[in-house]
Amino acid sequence: MMFKKIFKNMSHDKAENAEKDLKNQEIINEAETAENEAAAEGIASAEALTEEEKLREELANEKDKFLRLFAEFENYKKRTSKERVELFKTANQEVLQAMLPVMDDFDRAMAQIAKSEDEVLLKGVELIHNKLKDTLTGKGLEQVEIKAGDAFNADFAEAITQIPAPTEDLKGKIVDVIEKGYKLGDKIIRFPKVVIGN
What pTM, to 2 d.p., does this model score? Predict the structure, then answer.
């Protein structure tokens, strides 16, 4: 009987211990669940932050692409505008270049007619010469200003020959202009041909 009582007490103690273990295990499980939930929330919020950071980075990249594209387009507009202006300035270049020998012939004719005694002829040819000159000037043609005694510059004149300088001060300078030079806007379309002294 005593054995039964001891066994009963033992069983009772075991049951109490088992119940305590079960309660402790439930507490541990609840704590772990709470930790897991907190960790999951932390991961979710970290993912949300990461997602937000990704979106911000993508937005910054798109802004950068847009700004670069806009700047490139502005440069393209400026470049094409400048090219169009240049094209308008030089559109008549071929026609004007074809007219230059006619101008040269007219200048030579004017020099010969000026030697004659016929004032009326000189006046008439002079009027036509001036009209042609004014028309070409109106289209943008300008004479390159160069004369005997100027220093020779290969960027603005073409030396066709060298001769002994008639005077000391003409050494390395232009002695004579054989053919006039012309420019269209800032571009020289025919370089003046000169003789320089050495």
Answer: 0.53
Name the CA dihedral angle for 17, 20, 24, 27, rounded to a multiple of 10 degrees.
Answer: 160
3-state secondary structure of 61: helix
The correct CATH number of 141-198 out of 2.30.22.10, 1.10.10.10, 3.50.30.30, 2.30.30.30 is: 2.30.22.10
Q: What is the mean pLDDT of each run of 10 residues along the chain (198 residues)?
A: 48 64 75 67 64 92 94 94 81 86 91 88 91 91 90 90 88 91 89 92
Burial call 57-86: b when 16+ CB within 10 Å, e when fewer:
eeeeeeeeeeeeeeeeeeeeeeeeeeeeee
Give φ, ψ of 104 to 5 degrees: -60, -45
Residue-range domain boundaries for the chain: 1-91, 93-139, 141-198
DSSP letter (8 states) at residue 189: E
Question: Is residue 90 exposed (0-12), middle (13-18) or buried (19+ Cβ within 10 Å)?
Answer: middle
Angstrom distance (rounded) from CA 71 to CA 65: 10
